[in-house]
Structure formats: structure tokens, C-alpha cells
Design a protein that fits this description.
Helices cover about 35% and strands about 25% of the residues. It is α/β, with parallel strands linked by helices. The chain folds into two domains: about 110 residues, 3-Layer(aba) Sandwich (Rossmann fold); about 90 residues, Rossmann fold. Strands 3-2-1-4-5-6-7 form a seven-stranded mixed β-sheet. Strands 8-9 form a two-stranded antiparallel ribbon. Helix 2 links the parallel strand 2 and strand 3. The mean pLDDT is about 95. InterPro entries: Formyl_transf_N, Formyl_transf_N_sf, GART, GART_AS.
Amino acid sequence: MAPPKPPSRLVVLVSGSGTNLQALLDNLADAEAPGAEAPPYEIVAVGADRRGIAGLERAERAGVPTFVERVQDHNTRDDWDRSLAEAVAAYEPDLVVSAGFMKIVGKHFLARFGGRFVNTHPALLPSFPGAHGVRDALAYGVKATGCTVHFVDDGVDTGPIIAQGVVEVRDADTEETLHERIKDVERRLLVDVVGRLARDGYRIEGRKVYVGE
């Protein structure tokens, strides 16, 4: 009988409240219950581009090491990108997860972690990419939107799609109410996707992602 596969090592990147990070941490805590299946991943570090944010506090409460790489602490954006890549690489991750990380990484980071860097977006890509996906979908008048979990490439929300979740748009929705319902779906989808990638493995062929095949 083959020995059990060790859990995949995750580095999670955050910029704010860290609710997606908390969903991943809660899933790990649930796995510690008697009789629960061992989690397929472990969070080995949480990184941020800002100090004093709730996401870092969540990591510290969970006993997870943290680090901060601020753009303003480097001479150029290229230097920051290289330093971020080095900081993440120090933890030898199998996957890197952007959990509300609001910085666009560059060539140095993608050279290290391309094909292993997972992001979420609050719209059904390729529709409504960019920083205002919820607002843009609502303004366009769509009847359904949602969230996308995808791998990051050198474009803006253009990487291969792993999974999507659909959210109905209601007549009375504001950007805030719609975004809250999307976030609920997004957190569940991210936990499911990260678990499947870690447990079952995956391959990327062109724009298609095959999990466990």
C-alpha cells in the first residue's frame, strides 16, 4: 500500500480582511475533528503587501508564520516583485493562493510560480475583469454573475479557469449586496478548489485545467 501523500504546502497572500484566508483556516480546523479526513494542504505562511491588516492577525492567531513585502520599501516595482518571489520561495510552497491580494505580480514572481498561483475574481471571467467586476456586471444589466477561481498569468484576470460559481442578480441589488453574496460563494469555491488541486493534482493544457485526471 502506497504511503499517504503529504499535504501540499500553501503560501497565502492577503491585502485586507482575509476572509478567504479564514475560510481556508477554518477548513483545516474542521479537519482536526475526530474521524475527519486529513486535510490535503497545510498553510505554511501568509504574506501581505501591507502591515496592520486583519488578514495578518488571522494568520497569527492560527499560529501561521507571516511576512510583509511593501512596494514602497523597494526602489522599483521590479525590485518588489523579485523580493516577493524570494520571500514566498523561502517557504517552498506547492501552491500560492491570492486571497484578496490586491497587487499585480510581475515576471520574476511568475517565473517562479506560474502555473501554481491561484486567484479568485468576483465575476464570471472572461466577462468583467479588473478591479470593479461586481460594479461592471451590475451596470451591464446581467441576470447572473458569480466568481471565478483561476491560475494567474501575465494578464489581468486572463489565466486558465479552474472553476466558477454562479450568483443570481436580483432587481434590488446594489454593488454591496451583490458582492456579499458573491463572497459567500467565492469562499466555498476557493476551499473546494484548493482542496482538489492539493489532493488530486492537476495539469494545464493551453487554457484548460484538468484536476485529478
